[in-house]
Amino acid sequence: MKAKTVIFDMDGVIFDSERLYIECCVEAAKPLGMENIVETCYRCIGVTTGVTEEILLEAYRDAGLVAEFRERSVQLFSERCRAGELETKSGAADLLQALNEAGVPTAIASSTRTDIVRNELLEAGLLNYFSVVVGGDQVRRSKPNPDIFLKAATLLDMKPEECLVIEDSYNGIRAAKAAGMTALMVPDLLEPNEEIKGLADHIVSSLVEVKAHLADFVALN
Q1: Which of 12, 84, 117, 141 could bridge to 168 as Cys pair (CB 3.0-4.6 Å)?
Q2: Using CA atoms, how far apart are residues 187 and 18, in angstroms rounded to an integer?
Q3: Is residue 170 pLDDT above 90, yes or no?
């Protein structure tokens, strides 16, 4: 059955933010002497701020160090976003426009805090494309649990089986399948491993490709 609605992750799907944020993390970690920061950051892709905190504390076992690192990295990321360095992923605007013209409702379900999600979408001129915006602060459990996608489906008044989820992270694909939804992966920093190849219903190279084959995934009006 083709989907009646599309639920997007944001970071790594709508925006090329994962790459930019890791660059900021590397810069923030260097004066603090934090080793293996890239590997640690990869473990944080697709999870909420709270789970990210847990991963950092497990890796570095120093709450003060982690707090200073978080403050530095967030500040650097904010500065670079204000400087116009947060780029929209290729094909994102065209895909959203095509879905809008076809009358297909869309949602964002991002592990990032809701106010940040809304602000970034607003600044990019994309907020009005989404009927629903759900941030990680609106649910108790982070991806790979299905909570955020189920909440988005409820707000859209859709059944899980009517939803197509577009994700770039392993945890996002796991969450989409746990929610009983169709999972489409557009890889960003993480290439699909054997587990994800088995879980994802579709794996495509870009949002440009999603739009080119949109009728294969979504019931268009």
Answers
A1: 12
A2: 12
A3: yes
